[in-house]
Amino acid sequence: MARQIDLNSDLGEGFGPWTMGEDAQMLSLVTSANIACGGHASDPETIFQTLTQAAQKGVIVGAHPGYNDREGFGRRIIPMTPAEIGRMVAAQIGALIGVSALVSVCVSYVKPHGALANLAARDMDVARAIAQAIVAQEADLDILAISGTALEQAARDEGLRVHSEIFADRAYQSNGQLVPRDQPGAVIHDARAASDRLLAFLDTGLMPVLDGDPIPLTAHSICVHGDSPGAVSMARLIRDDLSAAGVQLAGFVTDSA
């Protein structure tokens, strides 16, 4: 079993007076926070508050860019060219970095959100556009990418430091991609089932899938979606189970200040 791993969650996904998830509680459990930066969710004040809470907890922060689609929460593909996607991602990263200067916290990595992440997992042109947008930033940014996907390869080709992610609460297909959310069994709601699957994966390196035999994946970080019902309870159980198994929780990026 891996002796050290990161635990991350997608946070700051409210907008104005509308909140999403229990960010303060999640920030007491995770080691990295993927913060929405104005595309699928968030606004300057929400970004500022989430960054402030993360800094207080010593949690590493990353940009979580997605489609500019608040109504669909970034879970619908918006027709765009790869170049347009690259510019959209660059703008959202810049928004988070701009607000982070007011909190004196360093944005350390980028993790695409939702439909954008799933598209980049299989479309090399989109993956390359995202990777190039990250490389172009003045900030020294890593990337957190779904394990075994096109985005990982594109990021490596562009010279980025790549960290591989698995999901505690999502089911997998045999091609290594996530089961679409509109299909049965795509989201795992049972915290015990999610944690047991995760511990078995860390022992074997094999992830169960819905359409075949388990597949090998690499994992530097585990994601628990912050907007899912019961997310805090799931993250707490996973953290406790990992600790009991002798696995240390630590951020995959060490310099967060």
Topology:
Elements: E1 4-11, H1 23-26, E2 32-36, H2 44-57, E3 60-64, H3 82-100, E4 107-110, H4 114-122, H5 124-135, E5 142-146, H6 150-157, E6 162-167, H7 191-204, E7 206-207, E8 215-216, E9 221-223, H8 231-244, E10 248-249
Parallel strand pairs: 1-2, 1-9, 1-10, 2-3, 3-4, 4-5, 5-6, 6-9
Antiparallel strand pairs: 7-8
Helix pairs in contact: 2-3, 3-5, 4-5, 5-6, 7-8
Number of strands: 10
Gyration radius (Cα, Å) is: 17 Å
Number of helices: 8
Which structural category fits the helices and strands?
A: alpha/beta
Q: Helical residue percent?
A: 25-40%
Order of helix and strand elements from N to C terminus: EHEHEHEHHEHEHEEEHE
Proportion of residues in extended strands: 15-25%
With strands numbered from the N-terminus, the spatial order across the biggest sheet is: 1-2-3-4-5-6-9
For the largest beta-sheet, the strand count, sense and barrel status come to:
7 strands, parallel, barrel
Distance N terminus to C terminus?
A: 30 Å
- Unreliable segments (pLDDT under 50, ≥5 consecutive)? none
- Taken from the alpha-carbon principal axes, the silhouette is globular
Could you tell me the mean pLDDT? 93
